[in-house]
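Quick one: structure for this chain?
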Amino acid sequence: MSSTSSPPGPSHRWLITLTVMTGTIMSSLDSSIVNVALPYMQGNFGASVTEIAWVSTAYILSNVMTMPIIAMISARFGRKNFYLFSVVLFVASSMLCGLAWSLPSMVVFRILQGIGGGTLIPVSQAVLRETFPPREQGMAMGIYGLGVILGPACGPVLGGYITDNFSWPWIFFINVPVGIVNILLVMRFIQDPPFLKREK
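Got it. Here's what it folds into:
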């Protein structure tokens, strides 16, 4: 029993950290990267300033609304399955955001993206807490906090560069290759803790 509940080895811990930080940076990045491109979207969709603000607001609201039910869904379906589903939903909705043909479709796709992205940060924190032994959890959370801050900090710069040199849909399309890598990492390195391995 001790072998199944003991923390993974040091090298494996950092691979798990890389896995969950990839999803976290994607989620936090999309809360700010869109803001630079809003004027371009406003022109393409023929929307007012108030209407185009829903592109950002929809993502943030759906992020917050998913948080109270994360623990329940993780316990019911398994944390790994739930995290994997969230990444797939985030990547798929990112692609749809880049292909949006109108403001209502963009808002709907941003809601879906927010649902997927909103679960990544809390679940990532839970995974890290169980991956590292108590004496190393402070260090792990500090490194993880760097990833949480890095996304919103780099978002406006990256969004401005992409929008100026390519076009605004690419601020969503860049999530696709990163998300695919994250999916492969999750399938390889993330495992459910023993107390979540229940008979369905």
